[in-house]
């Protein structure tokens, strides 16, 4: 058979080809480029400096558009002594073979298919095997639509049953690659039951690498089984085997690759939970036990624990009725609390270590539970945790209590509002704690309470504000920033009750703004001052000039790293003007409008967002007198509203991103040449992934700026008398009773959602 029981000889490529009965001087045709030249160019693409890579790309690009060149690449795949050359040849073939398949003719395509299967049987390098398996899947898309490729299925069957581990691993790699293609998967549909049996056996393979390969194959297959009948007959029997493999990997903490296996198991279980019919109610409890055990395992790295916590959240999101009905919630929250409080509290600078990230992720699972499960099931359990752990001498447990209260307040708002007299003393004790991390968590709780539980939370202002004053004096910037956030969220809704605290509040905030060197804290501080102005209204008039002097300095900043702070100052000045009225602020309006217009051409979406908000506030303040602002402002508003939702990255920017990240970890040069066969892509390259992340962040900022532009345009046009003003509009019908809209709410860009 294609896979013999003999052990694959770890010798040179020539020896391997000879053992396979292939001539070491095999000529597959082509001849478009001399072998030595092609070998050199492929090597340059992977190992050369940037200039050599550019030259090699220029030489290869024209050849890649020629069908005969596919055969040249195939020759390098079979004859090159360098693994990186063989892998890149396979990658380039995969990228271009689809566009050339029909032009190659039956004789050449048959030769390619036979050669690929021989390479799979003899290739000693795992990275090359994976690239060839992906190439086989690409070829199969075209071959199976033209009468099939029965030898490929024989290869899979023989390999999966081989006594040689390497052969079984190749079979799983090939199955995974084939199942990533929808077209190939449809051609394999008559063999689904056989495929399920193959994967079931592989999931129980004694070699973890083979079982992990089966996990990857099953992960690729799962999205294709969209019907409930398919999921029940094909996926459901495999769930216990997947959990068994996960438990086995979790119990073998010293085995290489356990972290990857556990991560794969959790990710696959996420997908199975999303599939109707794949998971029975009786399997919910074992899944929860496994996810919680993996999340609690301190011997694991961050990624598998993150995946386990995500599985916990997914379980609640997709099977919450079963979780409640089977009474799994008490044990689940108790074990999640242990994860949230694990690792203790280290030095203040240790907040970015893996253990800190785990406790924050565990708190976010509590947030999911509060949002999705009725509060009658959640609130008693939260109160029990508070009563048990709030008095603990362990600061990690006290911090966990405060974090959990903070993130669950919105989901259980009505129940929380009733329990505030019982919960606020816990928060005050957190503000007075000797550990800065506990004080920070207490400030977070106050801020999120203020956003979710008003007006009830405002009744506690006489104790809340003095505690926040004390925390503002903290020596740690992170704690000061959290205190500013709490003040921002709390004072915006306070109204006239803020007046007795106005002087000490502004004194502490302005002092902090002038003396802290941490920019995030400065930004929070400016936002807090803006919220104080919104709450104080006319009472802010006595403080307008000294505060404006500080904001004026920030509005003059032009360094790129200072523009976010300038943006906050822009918003703050607009809200200050609205609070005190036009008569009190008229002496600064012309100057501020000039500064605002000067900032719009800058490449700073956040600054534009807040600047558009400022002009909306000015239009609200001046009414028809804002008309002269419309003509110079209109081009910027139109451009922002019509902003493209895709930000393209130049070659220079891509090079900058790549330089930050270092070389491609796969070493296959996958990011270097364009792909003509877009549907054949697997994972994006390092550059593409990073570029997409930056694109998403920039698009989000641009969208916010566009929304702010729309609001500013509406306000400016209405204020200029182009649209009917509020006085001329017909009266609307009274709205249904509910929480009154807070003054100033329409004037704010937004109170940002705080990250844990």
Counting DSSP E segments of at least 2 residues, the number of strands comes to 0
Stretches where pLDDT is under 50 for at least 5 consecutive residues are 1-28, 644-695, 720-747
Helices, by number, come to 33
What's the shape? Answer: globular
- How much strand? under 5%
Helical content class: 55-70%
* Class of secondary structure makeup: mainly alpha
Oligomeric grouping of the chains: single chain
Can you give the mean pLDDT?
Answer: 82
Radius of gyration using CA atoms only: 32 Å
* Termini Cα gap: 58 Å
Short description:
This protein is mainly alpha-helical. The protein is 68% helix and 0% strand. 44% of the residues are buried.
Main attributes of the structure:
single chain; 756 residues; 33 helices
What's the topology here?
Blueprint: H1 13-19, H2 35-47, H3 50-64, H4 67-79, H5 83-122, H6 126-143, H7 150-160, H8 165-179, H9 182-187, H10 192-203, H11 208-221, H12 228-235, H13 239-251, H14 258-274, H15 284-296, H16 302-325, H17 329-340, H18 354-372, H19 375-389, H20 395-408, H21 413-431, H22 436-452, H23 461-472, H24 477-491, H25 502-515, H26 519-536, H27 544-555, H28 563-580, H29 582-599, H30 605-622, H31 630-641, H32 651-661, H33 686-719
